[in-house]
Every structure is written in structure tokens, then in C-alpha cells.
Write a structure and sequence with these properties.
The protein is of the alpha/beta class. The chain has helices spanning about 5-20, 35-40, 55-60, 70-75, 85-90, 95-110, 150-160, 200, 205-210, 230-245, and strands at about 5, 25, 50, 65, 80-85, 115-120, 135-140, 175-180, 185-190.
Length: about 240
Amino acid sequence: MKETKCGSERMNTLKEIMDKSKAVVVLGDRRSGKTALCYQLLMQSENRYFFKHPRPELLETIGVKNCYDFADLTKLEDATVYIDECGIALPLQDKKANQKFRILLTIASHRNIKLIMSTSDTRYFTRAEEPFIDTFIVKDINYDLIKRGSPIRKAIEDFEHLDAESFTLNVNEFLIRNRKLKHLNGKHTFSLPTFWNDKFSKPYSDKLFATPVTAPITEPVAERVTETDIDIPILNAVKTRDVMK
């Protein structure tokens, strides 16, 4: 099975995926490197957007704009949009959300909007959505939990000929399955984006984005002694002595 390893080949592979795909889906377990790979795919385009990112100010540092809702997204043209964890942006239980998603896939093809979507749930994309997806990318995932008939299940079976249940990938590895770009099918590697850090990996963490509060520095103030601070009998004795003088 062909593997790409050198830096230029890696980037050429990602660039070709984005140049020749309208919709790319990245599936894998949590902490398998989905988000980092999706950012690398997103950075292959010029007009870049992220759908409903919780930290828009973070996106500005890498030249990515935030899409706040579907109204914004469907007005775009000649753009690339990344939807991270589709189950959060469009929960499976929300039938209207799934209808919107299918409408989005249709509109995107007419307005030259490229979509990058990631999820840990292989059930998210049904047979109704799969025809709209050009490229499936597989990260490390539990083969036993993948629904039957899924393109990613087929990608794993083509890669692990003898025992698909033993399938595993390192964080920097992924499989490609594209019906038309057959020369790309197989295992590839990628490197982290140069800007990558914990804030991009965990944008919902309040702790990472909390601004440390520094207590103001103040000069020590000398204590001022008042009559109330002195024992009453002693105070009366001092006053009597002063009168006698």
C-alpha cells in the first residue's frame, strides 16, 4: 500500500484533496488528531472559514474567519468552511438540523463552497448524505463500531486485508478513500500546523483562555494608633498626670 512521507508530498496530497473535492469528511476517535488534520486541509485554501468556532479571536491569528450561523454560511461563495464535530453543530436528534445539512450540501456545490467536516460518530453520515461527499478520511477508529456499508469501513478493509478488526493508526497517519482519485487511496502521514497549540486543540476550555489576574501591588501603610487602641485605665492615668503638670 502506497504511503506518502516527505514534507512536500504530504502537502501536495492535502492540496490535491482540497482542489478536487467539494466535501471532505474526517472520521476518527477522540484525540486521534482529526482537528489538526482538518486545519491542515483548511489552510490549503485562500478564503477560509470555521463554522461556529467558540473563540473567533483565535481564528483571526491564522487568517480564518468565523461563520456564526447557517445564514452566514449559505451567503458565502468561493470559500472553504470547516465544521468541527458535526454532532455539536448539528445534533443527530435534531431532524431539522439534518435537513438543513442536506440543503447546505446542495447549496455548497452550486456556490463553490468546499466543506471539511469532522466527527467521532460514524452514524452521522447516512446514505442520504454520502453521495455528496467526495473524500472520506479515516483516522484511528474502532472498526467494530463502524456501521456496515460505510465507505470508511471499506477503506479499512482495503488497507487491512487479513484482519480489519486489528486496524490502528498513529496520530500523524490517516487513510484516504476517494472513488475518483484512486491514486490517493491508502495510508498517508501529515505534520502538525506550525501554529498548533493547546488552544486550537481544546477551544472549549475556559482554563486555557482565562486571563490571569494579578493583584495590584500596594505600599505597606503604617499603623495609626488612636485613643480607642489604648487601654482605658492607662489613658485616664496619662490624662490626670498632664493636668497636674
